[in-house]
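dude i think i finally got it to work??
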Amino acid sequence: MIVENTQTQMRKGILEYCILSIISKGETYASDIIAELKKARLLVVEGTLYPLLTRLKNNGLLSYNWVESTSGPPRKYYVLSAEGRVVLEQLDTTWAELSFAVQTALEGRNTINLKKDI
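look at this
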């Protein structure tokens, strides 16, 4: 239970960063964001994504455009705001620092060899 809780907290901690990074590539539809997160094995369901997108929008980091769809109702496409780009750059710096810190802390660590010698 402790490991699962820690894993969940680690994923939650980087989820907003990953969402901002995905949207920074250009106008993005919510299902495309989910697909990218699944591809990265950072599984997210719509019930998790939409509140995050709303919070990011309410904090001024995102805006959205409604685009007519030929196969159904209009779609909401998200884009980063100018403030969102600034925040993403700050998070890029933070990620680089954290990544370095974790890699440094893990260097030389004894790992368990799960393969049996034959």
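The first strand starts at residue 28 and ends at 29.
im so relieved honestly
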